[in-house]
Write a structure and sequence with these properties.
CATH class of the largest domain: Mainly Beta
Number of helices: 3
Strand order of the largest sheet: 2-4-5-7-6
Radius of gyration: 24 Å
Helix content: 25-40%
Number of strands: 7
CATH superfamily of the largest domain: Nucleic acid-binding proteins
Number of domains: 2
Largest sheet: 5 strands, mixed, barrel
CATH topology of the largest domain: OB fold (Dihydrolipoamide Acetyltransferase, E2P)
Distance between the termini: 97 Å
Shape: elongated
Order of helices and strands: HEHEEEEEEH
CATH architecture of the largest domain: Beta Barrel
């Protein structure tokens, strides 16, 4: 091999090594930023990787919203009408957050409690996050208690 060929070979090897290192760094960054979507039933069943960030989607259970003593931390139950999970969130909830509302919470799982870093509420009556809609489609709704059964109609006196 001539000296010119050797220098070209070194250059090619350096470029390949650089591409390999860049690829490894990019894949590592992608893996650390990956966020899985879960339903409460999948979370209870343990069908998720042990570490990482998750998106938990479902409906806020009627009567489950509980504000803790510090006033800014809220605990509420989230259901997919199969299983129910308690979610804890510290921060200001979105204006559209309420009982019976579909939400997606971003956060981590700690000791069977989902600690949310962000809570997203749907923005109108007909919208639902695609993942939540798909998960809710697969649920047998005949077992669910309709929300109208627990509401008192307006104008009713007790």
């Amino acid at each position: 091999m001539t000296p010119k060929q050797k220098s070209r070979m070194r250059l090619v090897l350096l470029v390949l090594a650089g591409l390999g290192i860049t690829s490894l760094l990019a894949l590592n960054a992608f893996r650390s930023n990956l966020m899985y979507f879960l339903t409460p039933a999948e979370m209870v069943a343990g069908d998720y990787p042990e570490q990482g960030m998750y998106r938990l989607g479902g409906m806020v259970v009627e009567g489950s919203i509980n504000r803790l003593e510090n006033g800014i931390t809220v605990e509420f139950d989230l259901t997919d009408y199969e299983q129910t999970i308690t979610v804890r969130y510290t921060g200001i909830l979105p204006d559209l957050f309420r009982e019976g509302q579909g939400i997606v919470a971003h956060g981590r799982i700690e000791n069977q409690l989902f600690t949310a870093e962000e809570v997203l509420a749907k923005h109108d009556e007909s919208y639902m996050a695609p993942e939540v809609a798909e998960a809710m489609k697969n649920v047998d709704m005949s077992k669910a208690i309709p929300a109208s059964a627990t509401k008192i109609p307006a104008g009713t006196t007790l």
